[in-house]
Amino acid sequence: MDQTMPHPGHRSSSGLVAAVCVAGPALVALIPMAAAPAMVAMARHFGASADSQFFSQIIMTLPAAMLVLSAPLAGLLAGKVGQRTVLLVSLFLYIIGGAGVLVVSSSEALMALRVLLGIAGGGVLTSCLGLIGDHFSGHARERLLGYATSAASLLAAVALVFGGRLVDIAGWQAPFALYLLGVPTLFVALFVIHDVPIRTQPDPFAPSVPALGRASEIAKVWPYFLLLVLLTLGMFTPAIQVAFVLEARGIGSQQTIGSVIAATSFVAMITAWAYGHLRRWLGVHGFLTIDAVSMGAGIAMIGLATSTEMIFAGCCLVGIGAGMSEPAIASLIFRKTNAVAHALAMGLIVSALNAGQFFNPIIFDPLRRSYGPGSSFLAVGAVLLIVGFYIALRQRQDLLQKDIET
After folding, report:
1. Distances (CA, A) of 404 to 62, 323, 337, 384
2. pLDDT tens digits for 221-263?
3. CB within 8 A of 210, min separation 6: which ones?
4. What is the DSSP string of 299-340?
5. If you count DSSP H runs as helices and E runs as strands, how many of each does the chain have, helices first?
6. Model pTM?
7. 10 within domain boundaries
8. In the predicted model, is pLDDT for residue 104 greater than 70?
9. Domain residues for 303?
10. The domain spanning residue 33 has which CATH number?
11. Sequential DSSP letters for 363-394
12. Residue 280 domain-assigned?
């Protein structure tokens, strides 16, 4: 039976609600990716030096730090005022914090707007993930989680390619116009998003557990939040680090750089779309093994690359895991925790996603300074490979799906 259709034990929602739930993560994907094509030009604008490279990377990832802080608060707030209110306010702030860069030029104003954008992004992504959990269940929910990540990857790829072209034409501020895509999303959400009563019983497809309280529920799955931090650090390596590797090879066109990096997002779009369908045969830990191993291999390949083609291939490998990490862990946490903890859990997922993104330049910078660019990629790639093989050995009973929901 098609689980998007209403029947006992399932929740259903309109296509427009699903569209908003998919659009939200896509908009949040723009937070780093619209800025990524501008990093090299931004470094030149503020002074071409190693410090300005680090500054431009921090500008790209600064919102992630705010998402880490704001997402759990958004999850708690959604439990009090509703997912709809959190989403609408967050979308409004998203538009201001994103597109506002078009009318500022100082580093101080730029940083302030990026902070605001990060706060808004935490609310947008947390509320959209929460709405997916509220309005959908079973296999329909897993497919929608995959579609949301797929749409995010597609928009990220478009932003990298088209944003690079905008930089070549109109300068480093031009890609920030992409944040105006929040306007139609806000308009649609205003009319179609409604809150549903919070259930006190677990999802019919989740384990039957008593309501132990939010903290106790979260404590059961904390290792997966840490794993998501590491996986996100890996998935953002091409977007944050590869532009400078390519520039060092003499590639000056931001459109070309963006196109190489966008390989990660295009592959992630395909694997995220396929997640819900492959879930019928692969267990969640099977996905997590693939995620860590493919990212580790891809990042190590970039570190060993002797040509632009090898860098492109490495970005593609990273994209395999990048597309399936978020839906796999979100699905696992939905199923392992009681519904009373879902809003907070989704906030913590958003925090983990963005903690990895924020820590990426902080970890790579000292490694690059001490051991060189290639060795920094090899070190991070090796860690991901080790973690991937550990998951495969530790969770070998869950690499394939045994109990299929239909």
Report:
1. 41, 22, 19, 29
2. 889 999 999 999 999 899 888 887 887 777 767 777 878 888 9
3. 338
4. HHHHHH-SSHHHHHHHHHHHHHHHHHHHHHHHHHHHHHS-GG
5. 16, 0
6. 0.71
7. no
8. yes
9. 15-398
10. 1.20.1250.20
11. HHHHHHHHH-HHHHHHHHHHHHHHHHHHHHHH
12. yes
